Amino acid sequence: MRALQICSYYMDSKLYGHLIKQLDQFVDNDVFYFTDDRLDISTIDPSFYVSHRYKSWERLFFYRKHKIVYEDLLRELDPRVYTLTHAHSLMSNGYISYKLKEDYGVKYVTAVRRSDLFAFMRYKPYLKPLAVKILEGAEQVIFLSPVHRQLALKMFKNSLGQALEEKSITIPNGIDPIYLENQNRLSEAEQNAHLAKRPVVIFVGKIDDPNKNIRNLVRALDFFNREEVLFELHLVGRLEDPKLIDWMQSKKFIQHIPPTDAQGVIRALRSAHIFAMPSFTETFGLVYPEAMSQGLPVIYSKGQGIDGYFPEGQIGQSVNPHSVDSIRRAIAGVYTRLDELSPAVIDLSSQFSWEQVGLAYRKIYEKVGVR
Fold it and tell me: Cβ atoms within 10 A of the Cβ of 355, count?
């Protein structure tokens, strides 16, 4: 049996390569990728089928753009050889799968991405009826986080009732295998020695992205450090905003670590005790389970990203990102439980292996009828 992966986001992230590698283990896959004519596609896998014809301005016209893409697909491929198509987003990719089912009867599953809910539905509400049709036609609907699943169930409740809930499932992305292959499991003596050091809170990401909420994180730690440095803050990643740099210069507890590779991130995480990223909005945030693999409990925002995967308090603490006091109390609470949380989060991080993700997709494919 053959499946067609429809993935216009393949070049945006390495995670799609990991995912399709897992899918290749149990189904014969072809990949269809599409983008506008500006992008250099010389590095893309030569075995992929590619549509590279529409102009960048045609992105503004949903049906015009996707008519070009669909025509290119039909020129390159015979849809009748596929048992299933897997759309890696609801709108751009899901529409192609929807058309293939409408014209050729090919079943499909579709993922729902943050951009589907927060961009398409918010800024192109005229496409909501089409979104409903795509969701109705799908055999299974896949969300990356429980938060986004609940949002979609509420958003489409009047149109789809219980149907969406019954055929939807949450499957996270996996993390880079290097983190799970190098989990930071410490002996009791090593753990005690680490906990005896001055506690370090760490952030990894785009420091000067306002959405990452670094200012409120710094303000929360400022509360502890008014008379002496009780907590250090290590910031790993891009920091170019001169206003943010000037504002943080007087904070003696902050250490900036420039962007680094995975090995460098692992070293930085192992020097810390708590990972904190209280973003205002977050899709999933692979950096949370990456930090967990190194024994760091996590501070994350309520209703965003990783929230909902685990019971409150199991991997750290959720916060109100708009409240400095909420972030401060979460850091203090997690710090008092480090000896309990640190070993536990390492074990829980294994749920985010690509092997586990692949098994979850295999169950979906088998349910749909792909063997």
Answer: 12
Q: 207: exposed, middle or buried (C-beta count within 10 Å: 0-12, 13-18, 19+)?
A: buried
Task: Specify which residues 86 forms β-bridges with.
Answer: 5, 109
- SS3 of 365, please? helix
Give the Cα separation of 10 and 21 in Å (integer): 13
- Give me the half-sphere count of Cα atoms (radius 13 Å) on the Cβ side of residue 168: 24
Which run of H or of E encompasses 195?
Answer: helix 188-195
Q: What is the pLDDT along the chain (371 residues), one digit of tens a residue?
A: 799 999 999 988 888 999 999 999 999 999 999 999 988 888 898 999 999 999 999 989 999 999 999 999 999 999 999 999 999 999 999 999 999 999 999 999 999 998 899 899 999 999 999 999 999 999 999 999 999 999 999 999 999 989 999 999 999 999 999 999 999 999 999 999 999 999 999 999 999 999 999 999 999 999 999 878 899 999 999 999 999 999 998 899 999 999 999 999 999 999 999 999 999 988 788 999 999 999 999 999 998 889 999 999 999 999 999 999 999 999 999 999 999 999 999 999 999 999 999 999 999 999 887 66
